[in-house]
Every structure is written in C-alpha cells, then in structure tokens.
C-alpha cells in the first residue's frame, strides 16, 4: 500500500515516481471516457488532444517533485503533493482542474 505523505518533499525520488505515475495513469483512464479526446502517456508525460485542436500537457518534474500542467484555458500551473492529493497554489486538485477544463472546451 502506498503511504500518504503530508508534503511532496517528504518522499524519495522512487516514491515520487510511483505517486506521480499513479496520478498520470488515473488521469489518462478518466479522460478515455470523453468521446473524440485522444491521449498519450509516456515517460511521465500525459498529452491530451481535443477535437478542436486544443491540447493539455501534464508532466512530472522529478527534481522539484511536482506535476507541471499546461492548459489552453488556465495556462501553466504547478501541482504539489499535499496530504495525499496533487493540488495547485489555489488548492484545486489536478483531476478537477483538468476534467473541468476539458468539459468547457468540448461543449
């Protein structure tokens, strides 16, 4: 079982890779429920391509132990692992951010 860390700086690189890979895989799986949205996940980078040509990129930044997020709506953001969740500076979870923005763009 994966331990919950209070802050991302508390875990090792190996633990970071495991936690970040789980999050990226989870996001990829949830995006597959959207029609005509294409994803690719490789080497810690999740690319999301929408039918209207817009795209998102989420990638892990191992030295900083962060997930970096690029969006056509909100621009670049950094997500830290805090209390078992990947959150940005506004305490919004990465999954909520991404899924909400995809919904806005595909309507």
TrEMBL record:
Alphabetical list of Pfam families matching this protein: Frataxin_Cyay (PF01491)
GO MF, one example: ferroxidase activity
Signal peptide start and end residues: none
Gene Ontology annotations of biological process type: intracellular iron ion homeostasis; iron-sulfur cluster assembly
One Gene Ontology cellular component: mitochondrion
Domain of life: Eukaryota
Name of this chain's protein: Ferroxidase
Protein's organism: Paramecium octaurelia
